[in-house]
Amino acid sequence: MEAAGAGRNVSIGMLLLKGRTFIALIAVIVFFSFAAPNFLSPANLVIMSEHVALNAFLAIGMTFVIITGGIDLSVGSIVGLCGMVAGYLVLNGIDLGPVGYTVFFNTYEIVLITLGVGILVGLVNGLLITKLNVAPFIATLGTLYVARGLALLSSDGGTFPNLSGKEAYGTASYPWIGSGNILGIPFSIWMLIVVGCLAAYIAQRTPLGRHIYAVGGNERAAALSGVKVDRVKLFVYMFSGFCAAIVGIVISSQLVAAHPATGETFELNAIAAAVLGGTSMSGGRGRIAGTIVGAFVIGILSDGLVMMGVSSFWQTVIKGVVIIAAVVVDQFQQRLQQRAALQRQAALG
Question: Which GO-annotated molecular functions does the record name (predicted)?
Answer without folding.
Answer: transmembrane transporter activity
